[in-house]
Structure formats: C-alpha cells, structure tokens
C-alpha cells in the first residue's frame, strides 16, 4: 500500500496475550478510511477443503383459501361471550381497570399536586390560545376542561397532559378565519352562506330563526372542524391505520412545529402592538402579515406595547429560572397566572381600555352553554382541513404517550390512544370546544410535579371548573397583549430547536435537510401545505437513499466465517477468482440499474467483455480468412481456451429486504450475462421473502437450487470445490476448462 493512504480498520485475530481474558480469540477492528487494493489473499491449495452443504427444511404452509380465511376471521370477531364483552368494555374504558387498583397513599399526593399546578398553568394559556384559534376566551376554558375529563376515562398514558396545543389552535384559527370571510363577516360585499343574511357584524340564520354573531359563527366552524377531526381519529383507530404516523418522522414533526411557531409568533404581533389588522390566510400569510404590520406600525397603541414589554421582561427570566432550577423546585413558579392577575388588576384600576383604547378580553361568561350539534352544512368546507389537524393531533399524542411510558416502565396502547384523542374531540365539539391533543410543555410540568396516574387530569378539570363557575368574569379587563405575550413565550421550546441543528447535522444530514424543508414550507407557505411538503420530501428522501445505496466487495476475516467490506477494513482475505458483492438496499425497479452498474464496475462488465471477444473474433476471421459461418465456432473456441481469471461472483443478499419483478428480472439478466462469459453467479444469505420471490419468479430450476446458499462462507466453499474440479461447472451446463 502506498505511504499516502490513510489509516484503515484492522480486522484480524488478536494475540492471546493481547485479547480479552474472557475471549482470547476476539476480533480486533481497525477502520480503513481509504480503499486499498493490496489485500492479503488466501493461500491457494491444490486440495480443496471439505465442503458440506447446509440443508434446511421449510415449514409447510397451510393451504387455506381466501373464503375460509374470511369466514374464520368473521367467526372469531363476531362471537360474543361474557368474557369477551368484559374485555371489550375494559379495553375501551381503561379507567375501569386501573382505578379500582388505585393506591391512595402512594399516588394521591403527587396526582393532586400535579393536577393543581397544570390547572393553574392552563387557565391563562387556555384564554391566550383562544385568540390564536379565533375564538372567545371562554371556549378555550371549555376545551381544556372537557379534554381533561374524557382523557381520564379513555387514555392509557399516566403522564401526558391533553388540552389545547398551539399548532392545532393556529390551524383551527386559519380555517375559522377563512370561513368567516366566506360567510361575509369580514367583508360586507361578500354574500353570506348557509342561508344567513348579513347585517353588519350579525347574521340571521333562517333555519334556526336566531341571530348568530361573529363569535357564534366562529365557534360553530371550530366545533365542526373538531368534530370531523375526531371522527377521522376514531376511524383510524377502528381500521387500525395508525401506521400513518410513521410517515411523520421526528425531524419532520420538529421542523413542522418550529415552522408553525413562526406563524404563531407572526399572528400575535398585532396584539403586542395593539393593531387592529385583518388576519392573513393562504400561501405566504407570514410575509403578508408582516407587511401589514409594518405598514400600520405608526398606529401602534403605546399602552399595549409597554404592557407587552413589561410582561416579556417578567415572563422570560422567570421561565428560564424555572427551567434552570427545575430539579430543586418542588413545583414551577406559576408566573403566567401571576402576570395575568397583576395585569388584570392594573388594567381594571388604571382604566386602560377607557383611557388608552387598549384591547381587552371582554366579558367571559360563567357556567356552561347548552350543547349544540356541529353545523352539518359546514362539513364539506372543512373536511379537508380536518384531515391534517387529526393526523398532527394523534401523531403528537401517540408519540408523547409512548415516550413517557417507556421512560417510566409501562405500556400504552396506540390504538386506544387514537380512540381517546378522537373522543376528546368528538364529545367536546357538542359543547363549543375546539381541537385538542397532548402538549409537551404541560406534560413535562405534569411529570416533574409528581404525577402518578390519570387522576391528576380530574384535579386539573376541577381547577378549570372553579374558574368557569366563579372566577372567569374577573378577567374582563385583561389585555389581549398579555395573552399574546404568554403565547409567544411558550414558543421558546420550538424555536430552540435551532440549537440542536449542528448535532443533527453530524448524526444525519438527510434528517437536517428534511427539518429545514418542512420548517421553511410550514412558515412561508402554510401549515397544511408545509406538512404535505414535509411528508412528500421525506418519502422522496427514503426513495433517494434506496435509489443509490452503498455497495462493496467483501473479504474474509482471518480464522472466522465473517465477511466485511474491503473498502472499510484492511487485512481481509480474498480468494483468487472469487468476488463477493454486497448490495445494501432492496432490489426493485428504482435501483435495478444502480445494482447492475455497481456490480459490473466492482467485478467485470460482461457486456464489454463479450464485445471485446467479438471484435477479437472478427479480427481473427479477417487474418485467417475464416468464412462467416465459422464465426460462432470461433467464438466458442475463444471462450473455451481463454477463460477469465474471475470464475465466480457471490452476491451477498443479507441486506436485500425484498425483490419486485424488476429485481428478479435483473438478477436473471445478470446471471445470464455472466454465464455467457464463463462466470457463475451464486446468491447467499437470502431471507425467506427473497427466496420466495426467487422461487415464484423462476430464477432457477429445481436442479439448479445450488445457486442459493444460506451463508456467504458456504457459497465461497462451493466455488472453491467447483474450481478445483476438472472445469468450472456452471449450472446451465457450460464448462470452461481450467487449463
């Protein structure tokens, strides 16, 4: 090897004095950073090694037809017995399983403490996120209350906090604003829909005979979207299509949430400055909103701006202190509630609305409104929006529940989680609520304050119930700028993802690119389009990885049956005349040409060799004056008397997960091309799926089953045996003399 070549991985047996005491014959690995060509080769022996073929008997498959299979499934699923009915009920209502076994002494203190703290945090956040969803503050309180109760009954995770989530509120708000404009609330020249007549900011619904103002119509749209999202989630659970969430990778979800956070920040900017601006929707809404903000910045309400700055100066440092000392604090400082109470008192006694025209939350009614069915006429308009909302909601809920279950050593049922989050949307949609899901920030608070079971959700609901029945009207004078600051401060976690990018880049550049593409498309286009772009780009990256996968030639680790890449390790042994090729990807229509080109490049190209032989034969014909009819004979003579040094190619199929028809055809073509120049092709370490595909694709005949081997070492031993015979025996009967 040249002196310029870099250090390689050494893959050779250790000396017994250097090896581990428990494993003196362990293998020592040393990385090869540049490929080398001077590999140590096997010593050639005239006597071939003993060769023993591995024989494995396949399991006999039951010969049942489709009709019998369907009948058996129906009989199994449709049978009813007391035990099965009990299991079904207990499975659907997990609370009936764990609540009777509840350990009061062990768990009650942690559950009450965590429930109280999360409830206190949820009060200001529920009011703040209502603005983001385009709703009145009371509807955010309703949403958090009902979600906590229903998840207590149906959920299997002991730690996650289900309630309002900023990204879903943003998506709901965009849909609500679009439907409000279509109904004519924000544009007097637009014709109202749904049989309603516009009258300024009020619409008269002829079907119900009552007045429906902008707030009423907004929650009507929000609850209808929520109902449809819940229906989708329950349907996913019924048909067990939770696999959809696997297409939402961690990088994609992180990029999506960060991109949506920029949109949330942008949507709250007008409240920080006290500007009365229309909400921008559609593609490029982020840029459009900032253009509107800067065009109207001279109209900034100084009172709202000062309030926003003061709240930021209080909230940000305290949040950082909470995070920095979370291991020492028994409970985080409820700074949001403190800020809300202080700001409300200052606004009320300072008469900021009357004196400075500061925008305030307004009247928040006590009690509950009568239930109302969703507006069925709106379903065609919002059904598509609900798809993205439902997928994001259940993906975040399932991923968080599984993460915390793994951390604390218990299991959750992903299918039941989909039912739980689905009914957390369906049932509250009749009570003037909007879409919910698990939220990471509140879940972390819940876990860190001693939560033990789902009972903490009931305590949280009681806190919210107290606010709804008694305290809510006291927030009348609360400025909207304070709520906007609370929303923005809670985006810190998503925006901090930028700090993780260098580490992500070092681990996986592809994931980093997916993160950037999803983040930028979610921020600059729209949340729904951004999610779709992210999913499509992720799938494209998966295809790209299999389109041009890694491939290498293998060598044998001395005194073992282990084969590794000769481009990655040094001191590997290779056998003259035998090349072992590994392809690290499924072999299918997308990468079949890549497989052939890599194989031909790293071994020999049979097409070029045949062309060279034909040219040599034609020259010989011209030189010796052989007639045209003797060309075929001359080629046969050439093939017989000038064999190649390479006589066998072993394809290691251990990394080939599956084959399609194009892959099988490619293997057939490769085998045919190589056999035409006297090289036999052997397949080794095929998994059962690949073997089954080869059998169905008639890759080899019954008498040619020796082409498939259970190990690379076995295939190499077979190649040595066939080489040391009179000629190289190729399965189709072609024999090339070794003389």
From TrEMBL:
Q: Where does this protein chiefly localize?
A: membrane
Looking at the record's lineage, which domain of life comes first? Answer: Eukaryota
Report the catalytic activity.
iodide(in) + chloride(out) = iodide(out) + chloride(in); sulfate(out) + 2 chloride(in) = sulfate(in) + 2 chloride(out); oxalate(out) + 2 chloride(in) = oxalate(in) + 2 chloride(out); bromide(in) + chloride(out) = bromide(out) + chloride(in)
Q: Which UniProt keywords apply?
A: Cell membrane, Glycoprotein, Membrane, Phosphoprotein, Transmembrane, Transmembrane helix, Transport
Q: Does the keyword Amino-acid biosynthesis apply?
A: no
Query: Where is the segment annotated Disordered?
Result: 1-36
Under InterPro entries, the record lists: S04_transporter_CS (IPR018045), SLC26A/SulP_dom (IPR011547), SLC26A/SulP_fam (IPR001902), STAS_dom (IPR002645), STAS_dom_sf (IPR036513)
Q: How does it sit in the membrane?
A: Multi-pass membrane protein
Question: Domain named STAS: which ranges?
Answer: 568-719
Give TM regions.
Answer: 108-129, 149-172, 216-235, 241-265, 378-398, 419-441, 461-491, 512-540
Q: Which Gene3D superfamilies match?
A: STAS domain
One annotated GO molecular function is: secondary active sulfate transmembrane transporter activity
Provide the protein's localization: Apical cell membrane
Cite the record's Basic and acidic residues compositional bias ranges: 1-17
GO CC annotation: what is one?
apical plasma membrane
The family line of this record is: Belongs to the SLC26A/SulP transporter (TC 2.A.53) family.
The identity of this protein, by name, is Sulfate transporter
Q: Which gene encodes it?
A: SLC26A2
């Amino acid at each position: 090897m040249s002196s310029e070549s870099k250090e390689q991985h050494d893959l050779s047996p250790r000396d017994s004095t250097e090896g581990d005491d428990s494993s003196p014959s362990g293998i020592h690995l040393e990385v090869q950073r540049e490929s080398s060509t001077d590999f140590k080769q096997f010593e050639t022996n005239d006597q071939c090694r003993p060769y023993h073929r591995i024989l494995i008997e396949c399991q006999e498959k039951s010969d049942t037809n489709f009709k019998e299979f369907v009948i058996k499934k129906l009989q199994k699923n449709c049978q009813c017995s007391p035990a099965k009915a009990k299991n079904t009920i207990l499975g659907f209502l997990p609370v009936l399983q764990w609540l009777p076994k509840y350990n009061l002494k062990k768990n009650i203190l942690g559950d009450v403490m965590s429930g109280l703290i999360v409830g206190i945090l949820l009060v200001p956040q529920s009011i703040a996120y209502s603005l983001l969803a385009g709703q009145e503050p009371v509807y955010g309180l309703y949403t958090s209350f009902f979600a906590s109760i229903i998840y207590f009954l149906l959920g299997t995770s002991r730690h996650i906090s289900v309630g309002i989530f900023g990204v879903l509120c943003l998506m709901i708000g965009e849909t609500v604003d679009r439907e409000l404009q279509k109904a004519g609330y924000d544009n007097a020249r637009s014709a109202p829909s749904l049989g309603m007549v516009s009258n300024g900011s009020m619409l008269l619904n002829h079907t119900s005979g009552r007045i429906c103002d902008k707030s009423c119509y907004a929650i009507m749209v929000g609850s209808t979207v929520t109902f449809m999202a819940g229906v989708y989630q329950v349907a996913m659970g019924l048909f067990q299509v939770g696999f959809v969430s696997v297409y939402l990778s961690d990088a994609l979800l992180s990029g999506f949430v960060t991109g949506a956070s920029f949109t949330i920040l942008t949507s709250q900017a007008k409240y920080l400055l006290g500007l009365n601006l229309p909400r921008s929707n559609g593609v490029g809404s982020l840029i459009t909103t900032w253009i509107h903000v800067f065009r109207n910045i001279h109209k900034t309400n100084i009172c709202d701006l000062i309030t926003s700055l003061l709240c930021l100066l209080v909230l940000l440092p305290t949040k950082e202190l909470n995070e920095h000392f979370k291991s020492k604090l028994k409970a985080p400082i409820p700074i949001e509630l403190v800020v809300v109470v202080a700001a409300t008192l200052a606004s009320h006694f300072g008469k900021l609305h009357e004196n400075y025209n500061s925008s305030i939350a307004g009247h928040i009614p006590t009690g509950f409104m009568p239930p109302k069915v969703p507006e069925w006429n709106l379903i065609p308009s919002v059904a598509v929006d609900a798809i993205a909302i439902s997928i994001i909601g259940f993906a975040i809920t399932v991923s968080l529940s599984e993460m915390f279950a793994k951390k604390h050593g218990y299991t959750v049922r992903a299918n039941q989680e989909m039912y739980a989050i689905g009914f957390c949307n369906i049932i509250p949609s009749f009570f003037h609520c909007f879409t919910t899901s698990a939220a990471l920030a509140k879940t972390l608070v819940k876990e860190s304050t001693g939560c033990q079971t789902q009972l903490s959700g009931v305590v949280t609901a009681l806190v919210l119930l107290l606010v709804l029945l008694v305290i809510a009207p006291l927030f009348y004078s609360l400025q909207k700028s304070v709520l906007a600051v609370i929303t923005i401060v809670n985006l810190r976690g998503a925006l901090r993802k930028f700090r993780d990018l260098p580490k992500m880049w070092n681990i996986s550049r592809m994931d980093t690119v997916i993160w950037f593409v999803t983040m930028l498309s979610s921020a600059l286009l729209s949340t729904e389009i951004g999610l779709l772009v992210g999913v499509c780009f992720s799938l494209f990256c998966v295809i790209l990885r299999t389109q041009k996968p890694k491939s290498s030639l293998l060598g044998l680790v001395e005194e073992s049956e282990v084969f590794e890449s000769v481009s990655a390790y040094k001191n590997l042994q290779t056998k003259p005349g035998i090349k072992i090729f590994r392809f690290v990807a499924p072999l299918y229509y997308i990468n079949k040409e890549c497989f052939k080109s890599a194989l031909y490049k790293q071994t020999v190209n049979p097409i070029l060799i045949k062309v060279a032989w034909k040219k040599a034969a034609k020259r010989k014909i011209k030189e010796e004056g052989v007639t045209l009819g003797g060309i075929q004979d001359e080629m046969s003579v050439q093939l017989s008397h000038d064999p190649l040094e390479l006589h066998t190619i072993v394809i290691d199929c251990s990394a080939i997960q599956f084959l399609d028809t194009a892959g099988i055809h490619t293997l057939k073509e490769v085998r045919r091309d190589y056999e035409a120049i006297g090289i036999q092709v052997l397949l080794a370490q095929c998994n059962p799926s690949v073997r089954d595909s080869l059998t169905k694709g008639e890759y080899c005949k019954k008498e040619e089953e020796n082409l498939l081997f259970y190990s690379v070492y076995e295939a190499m031993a077979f190649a040595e045996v066939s080489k040391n015979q009179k000629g190289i025996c190729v399965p189709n009967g072609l024999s090339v003399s070794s003389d």
